[in-house]
Structure formats: C-alpha cells, structure tokens
Design a protein that fits this description.
Blueprint: H1 12-27, E1 59-62, E2 65-68
Antiparallel strand pairs: 1-2
C-alpha cells in the first residue's frame, strides 16, 4: 500500500500566519450593526414666537379637506410621517411667507399656527 504525501504550495508557518490575517481583513467587509437612535427626544427648549400675520387663516381647504388652524398647540402631541417639498421648491415662499430652505430644520403642521416650535 502506497501512501501519498500531499504537498502544500506554501509552508505551514506561513499558512498559520496568513489564515488569521485573511479572516481579520474579511471581517472588515461585514456590515456594521448600528443601534437605532432613541425614538424619544429629551431636553431642548421650544420657543414659540408670536403668530405670523400670514399663513394663519381660521380655516383652509386642500383637495376637498377642510383644516381649522388651532389657536394654540399647548398640550398637543402627534407623531407622523413627514413629507418634503423637494428641490424644485427650494428658495420659493411657503404659505407662511417664509422662504423654503431644503437644508434647514423646519417643519409645518396642518393645524398648528405659524410659526410654531416643534420637538
């Protein structure tokens, strides 16, 4: 009975050094698992300046739906999905008379009076 000797293309010490290096390099390709940001926002001061002369009618209609502008947002809480005007609206006036800046952290609400601080 004949035994065959298998020859590796490289030496055993080189293989034992290269295998962990390859594993470390490949682990860098794995996706990072990032914990999602907390859904609750704490702290911060909301400043509510006086109502704007523009953008605060008693009510308005959009696509057959009537919206009544609130006198105050005190104690009101709501969560929802935001929409975005897009690049085409950048630099144009909004219903409150403000110039829309797509890079600014601003928001509007269907029934909150303008301007209003949100958190």
């Amino acid at each position: 009975m004949r035994h065959r000797t298998i020859r590796l293309p490289c030496s055993l010490p080189l293989l034992m050094w290269a295998a962990p290096v390859v594993l470390v390099v490949l682990s860098g390709c794995a996706p990072n698992r990032v914990e999602p940001a907390s859904e609750s926002v704490s702290g911060g001061t909301v400043i509510n300046p006086p109502r704007s002369a523009r953008g605060n009618p008693p009510f308005y209609d959009v696509l057959g739906q009537r919206y009544y502008v609130s006198e105050s947002s005190e104690g009101y809480r709501q969560e929802g999905i935001a929409s975005w005007y897009g690049q085409e609206f950048h630099g144009l006036p909004t219903s409150s008379g403000e110039t829309y800046d797509m890079h600014a952290m601003t928001a509007a609400h269907t029934t909150y009076p303008y301007p209003r601080g949100l958190r």
